[in-house]
């Protein structure tokens, strides 16, 4: 992207520090990035969609209208075949809604504990699962870009590894022989659902940035 395009500021619509770190690492600094922490007066958008795509689209469009900035939102989660697709869009709230100021690591621990309880007695070959990430970029007027990425794996019967967040410690990637929580950041980003969505997203972002420069000089 050229110097003119780099002046575009994009809001990353999340307060999840792990997501922010991953997104910034992969998206780079060719545009200015802000997060919801920069807008403490903006109310939280309720994630009440039936799909990852619906939630990402709702967050991107509503936060864009509230802030006046192009907004990148993602909705992502874990889909477990033996549980009929659960936890799905409820992944972050699988063990119940957390109150204000709740500790993210404790929430992750409770979510994993519930997942493993539900999978007790399910043989390893039936524990197939995937992480799904849907990305949506919107201006205050319209949706600009949408992409989706996935990564396939198995749910192991106990957490392994200290990296990552969410369900990473129990998500085993067979081709690597490790859980996602055992991977350093660069290896995780190379195979992750979010990484795959972002790799599809970046050329489309370049296109819309180039178009915005030609239209309004920004």
From TrEMBL:
Homodimer. GO terms for molecular function: dITP diphosphatase activity; ITP diphosphatase activity; metal ion binding; nucleotide binding; ribonucleoside triphosphate phosphatase activity; XTP diphosphatase activity. The keyword Protein biosynthesis does not apply. It comes from the Bacteria. Keywords: Hydrolase, Magnesium, Metal-binding, Nucleotide metabolism, Nucleotide-binding. Substrate binds at residues 14-19, 76, 165-168, 188, 193-194. The keyword ATP-binding does not apply. Its cofactor is Mg(2+). Mg(2+) binds at residues 46, 75. Gene3D superfamilies: 3.90.950.10. It catalyses: XTP + H2O = XMP + diphosphate + H(+); ITP + H2O = IMP + diphosphate + H(+); dITP + H2O = dIMP + diphosphate + H(+). This is dITP/XTP pyrophosphatase.
């Amino acid at each position: 992207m050229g110097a003119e395009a780099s002046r575009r500021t994009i809001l990353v619509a999340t307060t999840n520090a792990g997501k922010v770190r991953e997104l910034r690492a992969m998206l780079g600094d060719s545009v200015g990035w802000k997060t919801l922490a920069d807008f403490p007066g903006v109310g939280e958008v309720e994630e009440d969609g039936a799909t990852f795509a619906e939630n990402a689209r709702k967050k991107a469009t509503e936060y864009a209208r509230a802030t006046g900035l192009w907004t990148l939102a993602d909705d992502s989660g874990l889909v477990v075949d033996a549980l009929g697709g659960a936890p799905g869009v409820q992944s972050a709230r699988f063990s119940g809604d957390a109150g204000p100021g709740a500790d993210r690591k404790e929430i992750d621990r409770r979510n994993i504990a519930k997942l493993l309880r539900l999978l007790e007695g399910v043989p390893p070959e039936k524990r197939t699962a995937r992480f799904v990430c849907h990305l949506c970029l919107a201006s205050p007027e319209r949706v600009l870009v949408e992409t989706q990425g996935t990564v396939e794996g198995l749910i192991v019967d106990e957490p392994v590894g200290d990296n990552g967040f969410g369900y990473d410690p129990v998500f085993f990637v067979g081709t690597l022989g490790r859980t996602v929580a055992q991977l350093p950041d660069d290896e995780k980003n190379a195979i992750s659902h979010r990484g795959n969505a972002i790799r599809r997203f970046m050329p489309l972002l370049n296109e819309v940035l180039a178009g915005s420069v030609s239209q309004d000089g920004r």
